[in-house]
Amino acid sequence: MMFRMSPWILATACLGGSLVLSGCGDSKEPVVYRIPKENPTPPPSPAVNAPFLNGQMSGSGGMANQALPSNSVNRPSNLPSWRVPDSWTAQPGSSVRLASFAVAGESGSLDIAVTSFPGDVGGFLANVNRWRGQLGLPPASEAEARDSAEIVETSSGPATLVTLRNETSETLAAILMHDGASWFFKMTGPSALVQKEAQGFRQFVTSVDFSGSGGE
Amino acid sequence: MPSSTSRLSLYTAAFWTFAGCGAATAVGNLLKIAHPQGWIFPQVDNLAGLLATSTLLFALGSIPLLFAPPVDPRAEKKRKTAGSRLWGFLTSLRLTVFLLGASTLLILFGTLDQVHDGIYLTQQRYFEHVFAVWAYPAQWLASAQLGWIRLPIPAGYFIGPLLLLNLFCAHFRYYRHGWRKIGIALIHGGLVVLLIGQFVAQIAQEDNFLWLSEGESSNYLESFHVDELVVIDKSDPEFDQVVSWPVSLFQRRQTTLRHPSLPFTIDVVGFLPNAVIMPKAQAPENAVDPGITQGIGAERQFVLMRAPLTFADGERNRTTAIVDVNVENGSLGRWLVSNIFRQKAPMSIFSPPQSFEYRGKTYEIALRFKRSYLPGTIKLLDFEHDRYPGTEIPFNFSSQVEITDQKSGAKRSTLIYMNHPLRYADYTFYQASFGNNDTSSMFQVVKNPGRWLPYVACAVMTLGLILQFGVGLFRFADRRRAARPQTETTEASAT
Questions:
Q1: Neighbours of A6 (CB within 10 A)
Q2: Do A18 and B249 touch (CB under 8 A)?
Q3: Coil, strand, or helix at residue A42?
Q4: Angle at the Cα of B283 (from B277 to B286), degrees rounded to 5?
Q5: B317 CA to centre of own chain
Q6: Cβ under 8 Å to A: B residues 159-198
Q7: Cβ distance A102 to A110 under 8 Å?
Q8: H-type helices in B230-350, by residue range?
Q9: Do A58 and B397 lie within an 8 Å CB cutoff?
Q10: In angstroms, rounded to a whole number, what is the distance separating the alpha carbons of residues B171 and B177?
Q11: DSSP state of B7
Q12: How many Å apart are CA A114 and CA A186, to the nearest integer?
């Protein structure tokens, strides 16, 4: 079948039609609908109704990181495994802590916290100065902050360990970057007790492992 | 100086077209009509680089004109109208070759960018725009010297419609009636259906996901990329009434949202496409306090930091908005809403719903992954992750699910595993991921109204190819048969 058609009409129709189709997308008007009553329940995890960012994986955590068939994708767990020193006592989660521990001593008690936030949370210097502020210390320069820091190797890459102290208290803190998020491991308390537990804290930080099962 | 009537080679036309795409994109950016959600002009970070590259392309394309002999217009035998010239252009084989070459370049640069930017952003940038601009990657050699290069490329919405038009026009110009040409018509028709199928998929396809743990059931899917702001009227004992606004309504400017069923308005006073939310006590000094007075944000004294958008596979932007709920004679407070407040993966986060009461009714406000409700419920009975014996190498992932129809209550059980998706209620459920020590399963759920078009296209093209080659084969055989008696007669007379 052969017929004549004005090229202008054809060109306009086809191009206009395709551009109109290309411009279609989601409606920008509100949508109203009714659904059966929903009463969402918290996931069955140790931290039921956990506050924001106290995310706990249901069960014991991680997904395997293996070679997979092409149409399957593995999503890594956000909760690493670690070895907790025997002298530490696990505490209930609080506002943003993924894990919390305490050590009781004669001169007071230690507070150990594990937190995680997306991105670099302002960077190394901002976080060090935040901790310095918590100890009543003035802000430091980048060079001064680096002087109090050392790199330690964990099972999941290098972490920056910082030691800060004032007249009575001391903070040991480690920053580990993983999968686009910053992980903070911080131990704070009386200087004598912190120094006594410093080795245990280092071992705790170096044992952090994202490839295994969930934390204790 | 070459004559204005010199004939352009394909080489020149190609370079000038690319340079023209660059000029158009630059104009779009200068006039500030290019924005991330637009589909015509991409936003360019280095306009000077784009203009420099476009000028270089124009210069390269002009080189042959310096050597081409001018064409004497008096030698033209036939005076052409503008319409006939356009028709000649649209039916030209050179146009087809140029468009196919441009498609190859598009796929090449899209593949290179996809390594760093993920599939979703690459698809948007190269295939869902009229123009695209490729930037010389910082990871490549000599990036310090060549990092200014911004190569303009005609993108999917430029090449696709033109290719379709070219195919249509060429078919009507060259087609000759007869059964011997049916094969060609079918091949072209199949190709047209394939291109149309791709357009339908691009504009109408929905990509959702569904995370279920063993024993858990759900009656809705959540979108991979789209978020919604919802106000839910919880006052009815049996039903929830949901008013949903797409985030695209207010992501570019402050907006007041209203609906006749709601006795208040929602003023979106702030929007962050990706945010870091943390308590003020833990936040660095440059975090912004949006002055939240109600809900989770007030309770935990949240402050915000803007984070760069991410489109990498497996990552999700934390879409966040600051909204004022206003009534006739006052305000019901400022709320912080974000899609991070409740999610199942990669980390399980559960925050209580943010709700308020007004005129005796209870309302919940939230910003969440856009939901699509199913006509039934899907329950994960069992997830299996099989490995080759004695190894950790997986060979199978499968999910046993039970579907319960909402209206009839009828149940049916089925297995979803690799390359065997479930088709239910216009959705296709693919086994996509797993977690929680093999006790949770994630399905990628796709709705594509044109999913059958590629099958039709392939069937039609296959039939066309069989007919075309079959006709050709028989004609060849006939010609050989016809020629053989003549040859035998000649040989006989020679002996």
A1: 10
A2: no
A3: coil
A4: 95
A5: 17
A6: 160-161, 164-165, 168-169, 172, 175-177
A7: yes
A8: 295-299
A9: no
A10: 11
A11: P
A12: 7
Alpha-helix residue ranges (DSSP H) falling in A24-74: none
Q: What percent of chain B has pLDDT over 90?
A: 32
Among the partner-chain residues A10, A71, A77, the one whose CB lies closest to the CB of B168 is A10
| Residues 407 through 426 of chain B touching chain A, CB cutoff 8 Å | 418-419
Looking at the predicted complex, does its ipTM rise above 0.85? no
Reported as a pLDDT band with limits 50, 70 and 90, residue A54 is: very low
A85 touches chain B (CB under 8 A): no
Parallel, antiparallel, or unpaired for β A108-118 and A99-105?
antiparallel
pLDDT tens-digit series, residues B413-436 = 999 988 899 999 889 999 988 877
β-bridge mates for residue B49, sequence order: none
pLDDT digits (tens, 9 = 90+) for B278-317: 777 767 777 889 999 998 888 878 888 888 777 766 667 8
**Residue keyed to tokens 């069955």:** A44
Alpha-carbon distance of B20 to B158, in angstroms, equals 12
Best CA proximity match to B149, nearest among B57, B50, B26? B50
| Signed CA dihedral, B183, B189, B193, B194: sign only | positive
Contact B161 A34 (CB under 8 A): no
Which chain B residues in 431-450 lie under 8 Å from chain A, judged by CB atoms?
431-437, 439-440, 442
Q: Which residues pair with B349 in a beta bridge?
A: B343
Element (H, E) at B272: strand B265-272
Mean pLDDT over all residues of chain B? 84
Phi-psi region of B250 (alpha: psi -120 to 50; beta: other; left: phi over 0): alpha
pLDDT tens for each residue of B443-483: 999 999 988 999 999 999 999 999 989 888 888 888 888 88
Q: How far apart are the first and last CA of chain B?
A: 68
Local confidence band at B396 (pLDDT 50, 70, 90 cut-offs): confident
Asked if B350's CB is within 8 angstroms of A43's CB, the reply is yes
Residue pLDDT, tens place only, A172-194: 999 998 877 788 999 999 998 99
| Residues of chain B with C-beta less than 8 angstroms from the C-beta of A49 | 350, 352
What CA–CA distance (Å, rounded) separates A144 from B14? 58
User: B256: which 2 tokens?
Assistant: 């007041």
The band of B2, judged by pLDDT with boundaries at 50, 70 and 90, is very low
Torsion of CA B147, B150, B156, B161, to 10 degrees: -160
Q: What is the SS3 assignment for B264?
A: coil
Closest Cβ–Cβ partner in B348, B352, B397 for A45: B348
